[in-house]
Amino acid sequence: MVSVSGCFSESYAEARPKFCSAAADAGGALRSWLNPKARGPNGEALYLDTARFGAADAANMLVLIAGTHGVEGHCGSGAEIAWLRSGEAARLPRDTGALLIHAINPYGFAWTRRVTEDNVDLNRNFVDHHRGYPSNDGYLALADAILPHEWNDASKAETERVFAAYAQKHGAFGLQGAISAGQYTHPDGIFFGGVDPTWSNRTVRAIARDELSRAQRVAVIDFHTGLGPFGHGELICTVPPSAKSFARAKAWYGDEMTSPEGGTSTSAVVVGCMTDAFPQELPDAEVTSIAIEYGTYPVPDVLGAVRADNWLHHRGDLASALGRTLKADMKERFFPAGDKWREMVWLRAEQTIGWAAKGLTGK
Ligand SMILES: [Zn+2]
């Protein structure tokens, strides 16, 4: 029996060797990409690693992705390692391979942040940067409250006041959307989509072309945390309900699969999702993508931790007592301590991966 909790790691520095050795033990082919732009909190080099299983020309490929939102990689890494240690690679159906992408945003994972080294939300970065960016008037109205000059009781109360007034007018979900839908105007803000494709964006596109261009069918599962009831894994399809791949995802994952555009998800409608890269880079393959979003704590607490972390990196002192408190809170909001949440994560991941494998093979 695999200890599920033992598959999860307390830091990126712990997760990386654990992933690599579990992948090697399971017979995977490992590749590593060094992030040339950033180092970890202890000066460590930061890598995105992949492990590949199955024939080079496998018709079907299962793709698991951990760490799109950095700190959420604690969850995805744990699930990937549980998959490896459970011997799932040896049980892949015929003509089916797997590609595990670990720490797609290693900077965010290592620094306990959602963003990349350029303060970019990777899941808002996959837009066409040569075209105009979508506007977000709500964010403009809230930007000063989102990043106050000081982090103290008075500034927090003022932010609450501004948020409450906004929610009064637009509803709580309207407030969540204004903050989290993505913005391209405030590089020092949160949910910032960037000004060009980040290193993680360019790297994952290269990986998709290298590793997946021979596949006919590709199932992508991208691991996230922070929205929804504690431990519940919401299966979110981020492509429009009118897309062909949406109908396919529905057939694979069932009616409980949700859609931000369809108004059934805990997530706001976002543009520039990372998983959009796969159909773009693999035009000849049938790509079916979902995000699995595990709930942790109430939205205001989670968004509060994200704001605090953003303030800390722009205006605070990481080495201060306040800095350490805010970092510990950030980790807990996206990776709750204790065995139960982690066991729930793997249970749902195993089920979802099973559905993906069935969908891929048509069985
Ligand atoms: Zn996320």
CATH architecture of the largest domain: 3-Layer(aba) Sandwich
Order of helices and strands: HEEEHEHHHHHEEHHEHHH
Query: Total strand count, please?
Result: 7
Can you tell me the CATH topology of the largest domain? Answer: Aminopeptidase
**At the first level of CATH, what is the class of the largest domain?**
Alpha Beta
User: How much strand?
Assistant: 15-25%
**Sheet with most strands:** 7 strands, mixed
Q: Which word captures the global form?
A: globular
Helix content percent band: 40-55%
Largest beta sheet: what is the strand line-up? 1-2-4-3-5-7-6
Distance between the termini: 27 Å
Mean pLDDT: 96
CATH superfamily of the largest domain: Zn peptidases
Low-confidence region ranges:
none
| Distinct helical segment count | 12
Structural domain count: 2
Structural class of the helix and strand makeup?
alpha/beta
Structural descriptors:
single chain, 363 residues, alpha/beta, Aminopeptidase, 2 domains, seven-stranded mixed β-sheet, 7 strands, binds zinc ion
